[in-house]
Amino acid sequence: MPAYFPVLFMAEAVLLATRLQGDIARDEEFTVQFRFESEEPWELVVADPRRSGFHRGYKFTGGTWEHSITLPSDIGTVDFRQTAAEAARELLLRFGWIGVTTDLLRGIQDQAFD
């Protein structure tokens, strides 16, 4: 799995949730739930040739990962990119990529969204 998949998909999901919340539930908290489930091992790969490779293989060996984000009722205070980067980091840690940082993930987001 390209490492940028969870980074960008989670950012898009949180952005969509903040927009929905603003349209239909402005004064309520809003919860976004992520779930990654696999019986087969998944390995992270670097799909962007401008980025360097990994120091070793990072594999999710099976099982389930779940993460919930609760967006506060004051959506103006939500940094959707930071919130999504933190969630993506939690998943990538399950692959054993202990060196991943939210700053690195924000850089991937910035390349995609700017």
Write out key terms for the chains shown.
single chain; 114 residues; alpha+beta; two-stranded antiparallel ribbon; two-stranded antiparallel sheet; 3 helices; globular
Characterization of the model:
The structure is a single chain. The chain is of the alpha+beta class and 114 residues long. It has one domain (4-113). The protein is built from three helices and four strands. The chain has a two-stranded antiparallel sheet. Strands 2-3 form a two-stranded antiparallel sheet. α1 crosses α3 (102-113) and α2 packs across α3. The mean pLDDT is 88.
Question: What's the topology here?
Answer:
Blueprint: H1 4-24, E1 30-38, E2 42-43, E3 59-60, E4 63-71, H2 80-94, H3 102-113
Helix pairs in contact: 1-2, 1-3, 2-3
Proportion of helical residues? 40-55%
Strand order of the largest sheet: 1-4
- Counting structural domains, the number is 1
Strand content of the residues, in percent? 15-25%
The general outline is globular
C-alpha Rg (nearest Å): 15 Å
> What structural class do you assign from the helix and strand content?
alpha+beta
Give the end-to-end Cα distance, rounded to a whole number of Å: 23 Å
Poorly predicted parts: none
